[in-house]
UniProtKB/TrEMBL annotation:
Assigned keywords, A-Z: Signal
Taxonomic superkingdom: Bacteria
Originating species: Flagellimonas ochracea
Protein name: YD repeat-containing protein
Region (Disordered): 24-52
Length: 312
């Protein structure tokens, strides 16, 4: 099967959606653990070393997205950067009042170490932390203070042969709440996930070209369509890599979800459509940098609109 590629004008109208949660949600938590990873293979993934970012000549000035459901505005999120590194976000309600804000802290290798979510009064609701071994996620922890009885989620990532397992434990009482197995191909890329529902992705040159989700009552199949030109460049091209590191990290950090290449990771081409699940339209400036991205999702009539500005 060959990748379906189309070349469009600067303003593109196509929508995309996937059968899993969207990592752009302003309320989604980084699920992690501080428990040690007991088993680390000699070759756990495609990028053991920390990623080397390209030399930066273009810098974010502003970035925001608005989320809509059934035609109504749900939230607006604004991003804060320091030299293209995401350091904070602010989430606003439809009436413009502050809902919450997040602060990001990175380790010496430039990978996300801690993210803290505060409510509008400045009280820490979620304290999330991630740990890495050789650039690969090894564990994480989420302290949830917004419950009547505060609790903690721990996740451990284990690498064995060509399988990554992610186990999330709820404490108290210490029960497993998410367990996912990820299978790697010969290049070390995730192509299959099983969290009770199996999802398989067909990869071609490291790019997803098709996806099958095996549900109890049906099989959902999606084909991927990409934009041939322009190719991704500028800070948005490696936005998620600058936070989580390698491609597998970008996928498994959302333990509990189905495998998703479509909307959670950095890809070498702009994705336009995934079956009837997701459609995307882009608008570019004169330098072929994306300045507006509209994503339409099949479930719950969801839509997000991203606005991006760059420094002169």
């Amino acid at each position: 099967m060959k990748v379906q590629i189309f070349q469009f004008f600067l303003l593109l109208l196509i929508s995309i959606t996937i059968g899993c949660s969207n990592s752009e949600s302003s309320t989604e938590e980084v699920k992690g653990t501080d428990q040690p990873n007991e088993e680390q293979s000699e070759n756990p993934g495609p990028d053991e070393q920390e990623p080397i970012e390209p030399e930066e000549t273009v810098f974010f000035a502003k970035m925001s997205y608005e989320s809509f459901r059934n035609g109504g505005l749900v939230s607006r999120v604004e991003y804060q950067f320091e030299s293209n590194k995401l350091v904070g976000t602010q989430s606003f309600r439809p009436d413009g009042t502050l809902n919450n804000y997040k602060e990001y802290e990175y380790n010496e290798s430039g990978l996300l170490k801690t993210r803290i979510t505060y409510d509008s009064e400045g009280t820490a609701e979620f304290i999330e932390s991630l740990d890495y071994v050789n650039g690969n996620l090894s564990s994480g922890r989420t302290i949830r203070n917004n419950r009547n009885v505060p609790d903690t989620l721990f996740v451990t990532y284990t690498y064995t042969n060509n399988i990554i397992t992610a186990e999330t434990v709820f404490s108290p009482p210490g029960e497993v709440v998410f367990y996912t197995e990820y299978d790697l191909d010969e290049n070390g890329n995730i192509w299959r996930s099983d969290n009770g529902i199996v999802a398989e992705v067909t990869l071609e040159n490291g790019m997803p070209i098709a996806k099958s989700v095996f549900r109890p009552d049906r099989i959902d199949e999606y084909e991927h369509v990409y934009l041939e030109s322009p190719e991704p460049k500028g800070p948005l091209a490696y936005f998620r890599r600058s936070i989580f590191g390698n491609l597998n990290n970008q996928i498994i950090v959302w333990n509990g979800n189905l495998i998703s290449y479509e909307d959670n990771v950095d890809l070498p081409l702009y994705i336009l459509q995934v079956g009837d699940q997701l459609r995307v339209q882009y608008e570019f400036d004169s330098n072929d940098l994306p300045i507006r991205i509209e994503k339409t999702y099949n479930d719950f009539d969801r839509k997000t609109i991203w606005q991006i500005e760059y420094q002169d």
